[in-house]
Amino acid sequence: MTSQAFARVAVKPGMLPNADSPVLLNRDIRRGTSRAEMSIFGDDRWNLSPAIFENHLNAVSLNFQLVPERFRHFAKVYIWFELNCDEGQVILRRASIEGLLAVYTMVSQLRIARTFLTWLDERGFPTVSAVTPEDLGHFLESVQDAEMTHDHRCNVLQAVRRIWAFRDMLPPDGRLPEMPPWGGKDSRILLGKSERRAENRTPRIPEATMAMTLFWALRFVQDFGDDLVAVMDEARPLAGLHPGRFSQRGRTALRDLRTGGRGSLAPHVDALIAEFRRTGRPLPGRIGADGSLELDWPYLGKLLDCTSNGLKNHGGHDQRFRASGLPIILGDFLAVQPTGQLDGNPWMERFRNRDARTLTRMLSTACFIVICYLTGMRPGEALNLRRGCASRNKATQLWEVSGLKWKGAVDENGAKIPEGHHRDDPWIAAEVVALAVSVQERLHDADMLFPPSLLIPNQRKGKSRSFSPVNDDLNDFVAWVNTYCKENGRNDAIPIDSNRITARRFRRTLAWFICRRPRGLVAAAIQYGHLQVQITQGYAGTYASGFPDDMAFERWLARLDELEEAERRLKNGEKVSGPAADAYRSRVTGGCQKFAGRVLRTGKEARHVMANPSLQIYPGKGMTCVFAAATALCELSPGLDDARYTPDIDDCRPGCLNIVRTEENIDELRAEADRLRVTVDDEASPPIRLRRERQRLTYLEKIIDDHTGPPA
């Protein structure tokens, strides 16, 4: 997967690059990269793409023309060292910095360093070496007063520290004072702690919007997929990709079109007319310049691999079509007939060639939604999946999806592995995810599962679709569905989100659904109670994935909401009963007082706080568990987001001392009792069932009576 275009060289103090020095001297390079694609030090724009292995990322380059001219050469020397210094250098450890920066990070690193260099240029500093500790103090004050976020201020100061860390490598006129900047004080001391809220700043997609988006994505994959794969198979040749119909002109493959005047075209016209007659298809038509219906010559030209003008004006082909007796209708319809059903009727009347690209892109977008959302993958991980990534584990009988990861992909020395790392533990997926992978594979023949283009999948060989087009696709998908619903009088449109839908919002939304709707049916058949186990154990079982942090934050927020609602009901006089009633009141009141307004900054903090006894309250069906492991009678289960033990609400035992019943629980029991009375009063009920239901009814009536009676 990787290659090295140049022999690695140990970069040491005093070794400065010259104009011909390779920019990516000591970086791994994508296999197949030519020398012509490699930038040299003398270039003012450096192409970093050869060292970027994430297939979904766009071309990456550094533009040094944006750096003030007097500091341009210094910036290039500094960035060159950042790119090529051996990891673990003492110069980095001097600034408490570990390892090399990722190649992609150099884009932001240069941009942030420009803040410092522009400040020097505006104040007339001739060189970096002219800066004194006092000047750095003035720069700190400037940063503190600047209109920028706290995080950006920290990044600017860190960039200056990195420049200082390389002082022994840099030329004399590029060295900051020997004393560490700002006395070596940390940014938290210099700028104060961040006031960033604990909650994930990525907004989740509203429940109704996400549920209906997933609902329609499943429809595309399960119900419309076969139709649209057939549409792609028929439409691809019409886009200039007919087998054997190419001529090589320069570096670009162009269609070798027949000329309408050639006599050899007549048999093809006759064969096409015969095919239309055999399949019962009308001839395609369009509105002409005079407003009348005429043959759609451009579409017929695509079907015959010839120029439309030649087909229309030469060889008498116009007369052949009109003499066929076939009707002409408005539209460039394909031969593929819809087979997918929606509410018992075909979901489309017929398919037009002009709509083929849009419809197949909507199908591909639906596949992405199903795969990315229902596995909890990061969007970049989903976009880097390859053909054949889904398989069924014969031992566990579960579907697995294999792929690469970049987050946390480091070698034994802690350095980032640029080409990523194959996941040791595959994503565990629902069967519909495997179906989505299969449908997407049938849409093209590229190696990447999501190529840049479906019609020309190898246009950027080895690359995949990037973030921006995917996000456009997601919003276009919602718009297409809603237009379809409006035109067909349907009431199941997707509610519009006030924010633009992006793939990055999926993981946050999935964590919310798992925590807030653990047993709810989502998207008309996807059981999140089941997916919760698959996703949190199969995907997020490794903390490097980052998903347990999302889960911990969502559980924390959900638990606070539950505590607040419980306290409100208690203050309004709600009666609670059961052996754990006193513990319930104490935990609800104490938990709200203790945790209201508390700010958490990491998933680790959230998991630690969740272990507090005041938060160990678990609503169940007809009961609420005030959990205490020492007295629990159920089978304790490891928590899905950390190592704590949690109760098994589905295995609640009647005699457990942790049970409390709220008014909501009693209402649930009353509803069950009402259903049982119908069975008990039915003389036709089987005797065995009658005895069982009568015993259950007696048990429930005692619980209800104990709750409604005077307090113990």
Which helices and strands occur, and which strands form pairs?
Elements: E1 2-3, E2 29-30, E3 45-47, E4 61-63, H1 72-84, H2 90-93, H3 105-122, H4 133-145, H5 150-165, H6 187-191, H7 207-241, E5 246-249, E6 252-255, H8 265-279, E7 283-287, E8 293-295, H9 297-304, H10 308-313, H11 317-323, E9 328-330, E10 341-342, E11 345-346, H12 356-375, H13 379-383, E12 390-392, E13 399-401, E14 404-405, E15 421-422, E16 427-429, H14 431-442, H15 467-487, H16 505-516, E17 521-522, E18 526-527, H17 528-539, H18 547-571, H19 581-595, H20 603-610, E19 617-619, E20 624-626, E21 637-638, E22 645-646, E23 659-660, H21 663-680, H22 687-708
Parallel strand pairs: 7-9
Antiparallel strand pairs: 1-2, 3-4, 5-6, 7-8, 10-11, 12-13, 13-16, 14-15, 17-18, 19-20, 20-23, 21-22
Helix pairs in contact: 1-3, 3-5, 7-12, 7-14, 12-14, 12-15, 16-18, 18-19, 18-20, 21-22
The radius of gyration is: 33 Å
Largest sheet: 3 strands, mixed
Mean pLDDT: 80
Q: Strand order of the main beta sheet, please?
A: 8-7-9
Summed up, the helix count is 22
Task: Give the termini distance in whole angstroms.
Answer: 73 Å
Q: What is the approximate shape?
A: flat
- As residue ranges, the low-confidence spans are 241-256, 518-545, 597-603, 639-643
Helix content: 40-55%
Strand content: 5-15%
Query: What is the structural class?
Result: mainly alpha
The beta-strand count equals 23
Account of the protein in words:
By secondary structure, this protein is mainly alpha-helical. The chain contains 22 helices and 23 strands. Strand 12 (390-392) and strand 13 form a beta hairpin. Helix 1 (72-84) packs antiparallel against helix 3 (105-122), helix 12 (356-375) packs across helix 15 (467-487) and helix 18 packs across helix 20. The radius of gyration is 33 Å and the shape is flat.
